[in-house]
Design goal:
mainly alpha
Length: 64
Amino acid sequence: MSITEIDDDTTRRDSLHATINSLPDPNYATLRALTLVSRSNLDYAHVLKLRTAPQSRTRTLKCQ
């Protein structure tokens, strides 16, 4: 079963957490770095002139 197929939010979060924690260290470090950069982009979206795509379910950024 895919994590996206889990309906319960708590179970989905726990499954995702377990999957991320089971990553090899280099992969975990890469994911962490990408997450931090993405978070930084969201924090400065107004400066970078980025906006979220309104039709998307997830928070994706598009350049204006």
